[in-house]
Amino acid sequence: MQTSYELLSGCKVNAVRWFNFALLIASVATAYGQTEPTGDPAILPAGAKLERLWNEGEFTEGVAVATDGKVYFSDIAIEAKNPGRIMRFDPATSKTSVHVADSGQSNGLFFDSKGRLLAACGANIGMRGLCEVTADGKMKVIVDKFDGKKFNAPNDLVIHPSGRVYFSDPRYVGKEPLELDHMSVYRVDPDGKVHRATTDIRKPNGLILSPDSKTLYVAETDNGATGLEPAGTAPREPRMTLNAFPIHDDGSLGPKKVLIDFGKGTGTDGMTTDTAGRIYCAIRKEERHGIVVYSPAGKELAYIPTEPLPTNCTFGKGTDGSTLYVTAGTGLYRITLKSTGYHPELQVP
Question: Is the pTM of this model over 0.85?
Answer without folding.
Answer: yes
